[in-house]
Structures are given as structure tokens and as C-alpha cells.
Amino acid sequence: MTVRILLADDQTMVRAALATLLDTREDFTVVGQAGDGAQAVALTRECHPDVVLMDIRMPKMDGLEATRRILAHPNPPRVVVLTTYDLDEYV
What we know:
The protein has one domain: Response regulator (Rossmann fold, 3-Layer(aba) Sandwich), CATH 3.40.50.2300. About 35% of the residues lie in helices and about 25% in strands. The chain is built from 3 helices and 4 strands, in the order E-H-E-H-E-H-E. Helix 2 packs parallel to helix 3. The radius of gyration is 12 Å and the shape is globular. The model has no long low-confidence stretch (mean pLDDT about 90).
């Protein structure tokens, strides 16, 4: 089974690095990349990923709100939050 992954991060280089790393695995495929939370929500509806790798701090809509909206979809994907921030309020 191939795991379909959506990457959501406002830093283009981070998304590109993750996509390159994940695409080297036969069991993973990157089905979309979003530069902000609003794009992540829209692409989740469009691409139907199994997993969303979500950054917390992004423009337009942060990863926390995007995650809330994605998880409200019928049959939502799993969301894994990736961040370099260690603030308790984000956790």
C-alpha cells in the first residue's frame, strides 16, 4: 500500500526537501504541497491524502486552524504536526 502525503509548510525549501526525501520511498507518494493553511484545507479535499504533514505557523491560516478544518471533513486524513517551536501553547 502506498501512503499518499500532503505537505503543508510556508517554506518552499522545507517542502521541497521533505518531498525529495519522501519520494525516495516506494511506499510514500507526495500528492500535493501547500504553502499556507488555506491551501492545505483545499488540497486535502482535492487530493485525498492519507496523511498531512502540517507546519503550525503559516500565513493566511495557521496549521492549527487548518488541522481543525481538515479533521472536520468526512473520513479525514491523519495529520502530523511538524514544528521547530517548543511553546506549550502550540502543543
